[in-house]
């Protein structure tokens, strides 16, 4: 009888152990912390749900500015971030002597010119165009205007032009660099303005009313591919790769389309391709 009771007791312990292990496995789903500046957008909640379905607990940490997410990642306070394009990342890496790296791509959001009560650039000659004054958006804005010969550069091979590179006598418009947050103010004052999506959304300006924008399929927009970023020693992390894959699922892409009002263009480039672009951009920034 004692032997039988011992056997039953042992079996019960084993069974309990198996149940406990099963629960632990479920509780031990991978947790990934990602920093962003756009956590309120619908795409993030849909992405979080898709991650959960695939065994990844996605913890989203929102930041109020564009500098802190990279600093937090460098200090390994978070596992990755998703808020920036390659050109911004290249500038950060060079200035801070960091080696943050892209895991995968998400989309390109066109940078566009808006002109209140106009549906084309007809009649824009002689106008003052407000452009963002931060280095990355300023250079991109000048290239948008250059694409339609609204500005001429003193030298065409300048990758990141500034107003000093513009030949004012040969240009059709004048440039007025302002803080990016003030570009929408200029628009409402009746001036043509190049406004990025963040401030379009805040000002309630319909992205589809743009009179001119850059072409996401053109190689010149490669620097502006948005990327999921991590530390150099973590680029092969399978959970991060899976998150990139999940970003491109129909459910998340539908939410991205809603968030951007149909302006975002999905981009799915390999980690190797993205790193090559980043290396080139970093070289240009040195």
From TrEMBL:
The lineage of its organism: Bacteria, Bacillati, Actinomycetota, Actinomycetes, Mycobacteriales. PROSITE patterns: PROKAR_LIPOPROTEIN. It holds the Pfam family Lipoprotein_9. It comes from Corynebacterium pseudopelargi. The keyword Ribonucleoprotein does not apply. InterPro entries: Lipoprotein_NlpA (IPR004872). SUPFAM superfamilies: Periplasmic binding protein-like II. Its main location: membrane. It is a lipid-anchor. Keywords: Lipoprotein, Membrane, Palmitate, Signal. It comes from the Bacteria. The gene is metQ2. One of its GO terms (cellular component) is membrane. Residues 1-20 form the signal peptide. Belongs to the NlpA lipoprotein family. It is found in: Membrane. This is D-methionine-binding lipoprotein MetQ.
